[in-house]
Write a structure and sequence with these properties.
Length: 386
């Protein structure tokens, strides 16, 4: 097979969408049969490298690159193409994918070595991804990274906290602007910079970041925004229903950092304690609970409004705050007063059976019924049997 036949074969593969990692196995197996007799396989691959990578399906691209990088005769050449490869990094396929799927390229080391020259020549998302992976950026590049993130802070905040919001909403940009101002305010309070922001594990509903001792959450519309105020809720510094100020369904929240190791918490006992106080927590699970690192009060250097209703909490703070070391609820979704829960339970469209708290409610009701039956069995002719 000469160069023209190779190019013809490539065109066929492009048209059929067949450029994937197996393609590399195919060309190397045919090279062993000396079918590339007028031009070496390596020179052909290098000549058409950018075209092959570009034509590869995005879902297979990094695997194909990784396959090529493992070939001894292509490894050095592939490393030289890193700036080109990084041009494919976007919100769908981030730097994480390249670094994890192409370990032979040592892309993290390459970026750190060429940090200054790359910072204006590759997608910003590469540096955003590195920024949130603690330890990926060398100390010598930290200040340059902070300057870069500060210069592009709106885009970076959107990268961190805008993924669960509908980008086609009319007020989407306004919500990102509000989020940016909030991030800047927390950074100022904590005396930290953009390189100190850490991304926490996000659930299906929210993007979550940590700035010093404060946690910021931006997420989708919740099942319940207005919830009964109680001492077991982690006090929100800020909690905003975005639909109250825009057409974007979702919430923004700022709370205190807590210890998320709750392995010693008995979920049913905690549910039962809430239930006795007339609070029904239908979304009770380990990831929604935490242990207070400070007393459950406001730890903020500016005066905060005491009207809890603006934070979606129903009822006054007529209880003593829980002390450091106490368990608290982190996620206020699907929390109801007993009266509201009983009302909603009668509606056919309620989805309580799909929530983790449903099993605990069934158990709680059975215990109440058993207790009532025991009391009845101990009464004869209107007198209690001792």
């Amino acid at each position: 097979m000469n160069a023209k036949k190779f190019e013809k074969k490539l065109s066929h593969y492009y048209e059929q969408g067949l450029v994937y990692p197996g393609f590399i196995h195919w060309v190397y197996s045919h090279d062993k049969k000396s079918l590339f007799h007028d031009q070496s396989l390596v020179s052909l691959l290098q000549e058409h490298y950018k075209e092959i990578v570009s034509k590869c399906l995005p879902s297979n691209r990094f695997l194909l690159v990784s396959e090529l990088s493992r070939k001894d005769d292509m490894n050095s050449f592939t490393k030289e193409q890193i700036p080109f490869l990084l041009s494919f990094v976007d919100s769908e396929y981030s730097f994480f994918d390249f670094d994890d799927l192409c370990p032979d390229l040592k892309i993290k080391d390459y970026i750190n070595t060429h940090f200054t020259s790359l910072i204006s020549n590759i997608p910003n998302v590469c540096f955003y991804s590195m920024a949130v992976k603690n330890g990926d950026v060398d100390d010598k590049n930290r200040e340059a990274l902070n300057q870069f993130l500060t210069k592009n802070k709106r885009e970076y905040v959107e990268f961190l906290l805008g993924n669960k919001l509908p980008k086609d909403a009319k007020n989407y940009d306004d919500v990102i602007d509000v989020t940016l101002k909030l991030v800047d305010e927390v950074l100022e309070h904590e005396n930290l910079s953009y390189t100190d922001i850490k991304r926490l594990n996000s659930g299906g509903y929210s993007d979550v970041i940590l700035i010093g001792s404060k946690v910021l959450k931006v997420g989708k519309e919740r099942g319940t925004y207005y919830v009964p105020n109680n001492e077991y809720l982690l006090k929100p510094y800020i909690r905003v229903n975005l639909e109250d100020i825009s057409d974007v369904p979702g919430t923004i929240e700022v709370v205190e950092k807590v210890n998320t190791d709750v392995s010693d918490i008995d979920l049913y006992s905690f549910y039962k304690e809430l239930r006795k106080k007339g609070i029904v927590c239908m979304d009770i699970k380990s990831i929604n609970l935490g242990i207070l690192l400070k007393d459950n009060t406001f730890h903020w250097n500016k005066q905060l409004g005491r009207d809890v209703s603006v934070r979606g909490l129903i009822g006054d703070d007529n209880f003593s705050p829980l002390s450091k070391g106490s368990p608290v609820i982190l996620d206020s979704d699907h929390i109801y007063s007993e009266r509201m829960f009983n009302f909603l339970s009668k509606r056919k469209e309620n989805n309580f059976k799909s929530l983790p708290g449903y099993q605990y409610e069934q158990r709680y009701q059975k215990e109440l019924a058993d207790m009532l039956n025991d009391e009845k069995s101990n009464v004869v002719d209107g007198k209690r049997i001792k």
